[in-house]
Amino acid sequence: MALAFLIAAAIGAFAMIQAQSFSAGFSGADEPSHFLNGYFISSYLQHHFGSNPMAFATDFYIHYPKISIGHWPPAYYGLLSLNFLLFPATYMSAFVWNVLVAALPAFGIAAALFRLAGRRAALAGVVVFALTPLALEGQALFMVDQPLAATLVAATAVWIAYAQRPTWGRALAFAAISALAVLIKGNGWIALFIPLYQIALTGTWRRLLSLRLAVAAVLGAVLVVPWYLLTAKIAADGFNYQAGIGYAMKALAANTVFLADNISWAGVALALYAGVAEFRARQAAPLRWTIVSGVISLVLATFTLQSIVPVDIVDRYVAPALPAVVVLAVLGAVRLLALLPLAYGRWRLPAGAVLALLMVWGGVHHLLQRVPKADVGNLAITEQLTPGAIPSVTVIDGRSGDEGAFIATMAVHDPKLQSYVVRASKLFADSNFMGSKYALKYQDQASVVAELRRLGVRNIVLIRANHLSAFPHSEQLRQALAQPGSGYRLSERVDHRNRDGVTEVYVAVQPVTPNIPAVRALGIPAKANALVKS
């Protein structure tokens, strides 16, 4: 099993290095939030332990408005904070951690295939999984889908063990791991459906009357339900669809295509073939069917939740099902090759290689065409913006991910929370969480400059991908700064690496005094404020 993990981690490390994540950092809107959420907890434990954590969260957000615990549950960030307590909170330490976490499903894949088809199939399954586009992209992006997938694979393994021999320890372990999954991400509710499907597939309905399961379910609910009652309205802001049969059908079709994009339609066909063949042989090998039915249950549970909860339709939401589908696809290939007559035994190895190539080609193609992540120069620039003895106010403007990357890096350089960062997207525009509603706050450049002066802004960073302003307010701000008498001058231009673009740094011409009460009065979102006060 250790070899399987090392193989997955090695392939993942290659993907991470190829994407230059260790130096370029974050590219998506969510990545810096996940990083900063973990750093926030480690900062509290290192520098503010014993103080009111909610008050510290409020203060931290006002200084560096990118933490988002509440929209996402806290469990993974607590684990991530341990990494930042042991190692510096840098891109390198974050992405090494990410590589190791993203490789964890290899244990479950190898264990299932070893028992079902032997060592070679187990190692082949790990390679196929590690070379899927989703797994490769998960190594390059700092997200919570990777730990969620690992946790749900673990939950499935524990449930299979419980189904083979029900004990109090296994029931409580399943409840604890399931609760962890739910407290990592809302998609963790997938764990609720795993036992239901496995019981249905094996016909062991009496298991639902088990006192062990009842107690475990109650204990799990005690851990997770209060958090979701507290944060349900905040999390619901991220929903992009309306629940219903139309969404369910659309999600089912899209998620099936996502799986085919990762292991090919041949891989999907092999997985279906394995499921049908194992079902037909279930009475002859009940223990084997217990394992396979558990694996199938993870796939069905993932599809069920993604069809019910209308948050979005994106490929990474099927990440929990991917390890299970790979197990089934490899198992299907083994079964198919076993059908070859003994006289054609010499063809089994090349035939197996062809099937494996079909399943990994999508990932290989992904590696060949993936461009490195854009480096917008935030590491070099933020060192210059690191606060000194006097607090300062910095405005950051760019795409959400670029804004977040600068905010996260600046926060790491300011453990004492001396200075403040303001997002231009919140200062000069009104928009909702998903950005589907947008309106400028100011209609002229003079009002923009007046607001900068009112807040006592010293630094302004404009991140321009393809040399274009990110939003209408971005261009409005840039034009305002270029006006004679704006009070700001362009001090630095840093060309982006790995993409066409530039980051411009403007500084106040004269010394400015930060208007701390005005900056703090900008506050935090109303729903987050309600969460803090509660």
Verbal overview:
The chain has 534 residues and is an alpha/beta fold. It has 2 domains: 2-369, no CATH class; 378-533, no CATH class. It is built from 24 helices and 7 strands. The protein has helices at 2-18, 21-24, 31-48, 53-63, 75-86, 91-102, 105-117, 119-130, 133-140, 145-164, 168-182, 190-202, 211-236, 245-280, 286-308, 322-338, 348-369, 378-385, 400-412, 424-427, 445-455, 472-482, 516-521, 526-533; strands spanning 393-397, 420-423, 429-431, 438-440, 459-465, 488-495, 501-508. Strands 2-1-5-7-6 form a 5-stranded mixed β-sheet, with helices on both faces. The chain has a two-stranded antiparallel sheet with strand order 3-4. Helix 10 packs antiparallel against helix 15 (286-308), helix 11 (168-182) runs parallel beside helix 13 (211-236) and helix 12 (190-202) crosses helix 15. The two termini are 45 Å apart.
Average of pLDDT: 91
Helices, by number, come to: 24
Distance between the termini: 45 Å
Please summarize the sheet with the most strands.
5 strands, mixed
Across the major sheet, the strand order is 2-1-5-7-6
Number of E-state strands: 7
Low-confidence stretches: 526-534
Structural class designation: alpha/beta
User: Level of helix content?
Assistant: 55-70%
Question: How much strand?
Answer: 5-15%
Instruction: Give Rg in angstroms.
Output: 25 Å
